[in-house]
Amino acid sequence: MTENLFLRLIHPSSIEEPVRINSGELKEMKSLAADHHLLLLLFKMLKDRLEHIVPREVILEFLEETAPLYYRNVFHATIQQETASRIVALLKAQGISSLVFRGSEIAADIYGDPFCRTSADIDILLRISDVLTADKILTNAGYLRTDRFPLKFLLSRLHHAVYRDPDTRDLVELHWNFAIPSYFRIESEEIWEGISLPEGQQPKLSPEMTVIQLLIHHHMHAFRELKILVDILWAFQKYEKSIDWQKFVTAIERIGLSKVTQIALSQIRNIWENTERLKTEEILSGELMRKGYKAPAYLLSFFSMDIKKKYQFQNPADKFMVRLTLDRWNTILYSFSKTFFPPPGAIKDLYGDCRNWTLPVHYVRFIAWRIGKQ
Fold this sequence. Notes:
Among the domains are: 198-328, no CATH class; 341-374. It is 56% helix and 8% strand. The chain has helices spanning 2-9, 23-35, 39-48, 56-92, 103-110, 131-140, 151-157, 188-193, 207-220, 226-238, 245-255, 258-271, 279-290, 297-302, 316-321, 329-340, 344-351, 359-373, and strands at 19-20, 53-54, 98-101, 121-126, 144-145, 160-164, 171-175, 195-196, 204-205.
C-alpha cells in the first residue's frame, strides 16, 4: 500500500481525489524515496499537491523536516551550475561549442524545478572532433582525468571521459556520445543536429534527443534505476504534444532502441499498473506493435523492476543480459567481441606502442586484464 502511494505521488498525472497519508506511511515513503534518490522529487510533489493530501499537518511536518535537504541541494546544484558554466565558457573562448545536460538541466526542463533532482557529477556534451582539443584546454586549466587510459583509446571504446574540478572537486563528465559507440547507431554529429537554440537561452537538447538520451541512459544502467525511469515517464508527459511520436518510433528503430523502449514501457506499465497510462505510452506501444516489434518475454521478465529491491550496479548477469536488449544480432555479437578484441589502433593507443609485431603481446595483456575485470 505504501509503495502504491509513493508511486502515485511521483507520477506526473494530476490528483483529483484527496489522498490520505498517515505518519507511518509517510515515514516508509521517505525511506523508499531516499533509497531511490527521489526524496527531493517527493518533497516537491507533496509541496505542490498539498491541497489534495490529508491530513495537512502530517505533510507540513514532513516538508519542514525535508526542507534543509532540499536547500542543501540548491546550494550544491548552484555550485555545479557555476562550475559547468565556467567550463562551457572556457571551451567557447577556444572556439569549442558545448552544453550541459542531465542533472539540474533536465530537472528544470521536465520537472519544472532544477533542484528536485540530485546529481553526483556534471555532464557536458561536445562534438567528438573537439575532444582532444578540449582535453588540452581542461588539462591546462588544472582539470585532472580520473583514469589513466589514453584519450584516443577511450574515443573508440567509450562515450565520455571523467575529470576532477581543481577548485570544487566536482566530477565532470565530458561526453561525445550518449552510449558506448558499438551499441547504438547514433553519432556525435547526429546528436548535435538535435540541439535546439531557444532565443535568449543556452543551447539544449531537443525534446526528441532528450528522450533518446534518457532511454540510452536507462540501458547504460541496466534498466535498474527507478530514478531514470521516472525521468522517462515525466519526459513522456512533458513532450506529449512536442514530439511526433509516430516519427519518433522510426528514429528509435534506426538507432536500435526498439527493445530498450519496450522494456522501459513494460516497466512503467507494471510499476504504475493502477495509474492511468499517459497518451504517449499508448502511442509508442501501439506504433511499436504495429511495426512488428516485440521484446522477448525473457528480457521483459529479467528486467522487471522491484522497487523494494536494491540492485547491485554492473553485476555480471546484468552486464551480459543488457547486451541482448540491443536490436540487432550482429550488434550483440560485435559488442561481445569488442570487449576482448578492440581495434588494433585502440590497442596501440592504450599501450603507447605503434609497432605491429608487438600487437599479439598487447592483445594477450588486454584480454588478461579484461578477464580480471569480469
